[in-house]
Amino acid sequence: MSDILSVALPKGRLGERAYSIFERAGFGCAEIHENSRKLIFDDEIRGIRYFWAKPSDVASYVEYGAADVGVAGLDVLLEQKPEVFELLDLHLGQCAMAVAGRARALDSRGETLKVATKFPNVALRHFSEQGREIEVIKLHGSIELAPLVGLSDVIVDIVETGKTLRENGLEVLETIFDISSRLIVNKAAFRFKNERVLELCRKLEMELAREEKIDD
User: Fold this and answer.
1) CATH code of residue 12
2) Which domain does 13 fall in, by range?
3) What's the pLDDT tens digit per position in 92-102?
4) How many C-beta atoms lie closer than 10 Å to residue 138's C-beta?
5) pTM of structure
6) Beta strand ranges found along 139-196 (DSSP E)
7) Which of 155, 192, 195, 207 is most buried, judged by most C-beta within 10 A?
């Protein structure tokens, strides 16, 4: 089944929104709508295969060739730095990576800054560019809690509306970069399935442009 194009999608609402774009672009798969416990969904007529993965794992599936293409957030790509090609901005899941904390938490420059985050590599690069020494505290849960209980001075995390920050007396202190979901491709797949990958990319671009025109 070397002619099958395999797609890794992130589980959850974001992946469902991404799949709907694929479907409208002509890459639908009827099996994916079935109420079952299947993990892999094939449409041999269209030559497409889908599977759901944890959002932070999608890039690994693509990098190591378990999927030809995938949908991954820019936050994941900049944290993990996978060996993949980025083809298209899908403009989904738009938010920002930011430094947040109490007002003036960044003002003191003489001490090592304690930073709580799920994104240690992003945090280290950001503050290294500023020439600032930090201690990274990697967390997996509610990052906003860290400065409230004195575990960290600031956090580096994804911010959508900022409502949770404000409700806890925190604020965005610096925006590091804007985030959206990207179409990525395995390097070998881009070489050996080039026509199919470029066809997918072209049709997704056309669908995104059509949707943007409707919104306007």
Assistant:
1) 3.40.190.10
2) 5-93+180-215
3) 999 999 999 99
4) 12
5) 0.92
6) 154-159, 171-179, 181-186
7) 155
